[in-house]
Amino acid sequence: MKIPVSKDNxxxxxEFIKRILLKHDLLEKYNSQIxxxxxxxxxxxxxxxxxxxxxxxxxxxxxELREGKAYMGMRR
Length: 76
Prior knowledge:
By secondary structure, the chain is mainly alpha-helical. It has 4 helices and 2 strands, in the order E-E-H-H-H-H.
């Protein structure tokens, strides 16, 4: 799934991340994030070498989106 923000700011969401976001009813909230945050979540999760690290990062993304917190604690 590609989300156009402008012609230069498209983030491809891997299908497994999209399914997780849909399962937790967070896809719309994810899509409302700025390009840098969306890209950061995807890259951080995909770059994990171990499954437990990937799971921890997914859990963090879910928690931050639910609580309305900025990506990785960054200030907006």
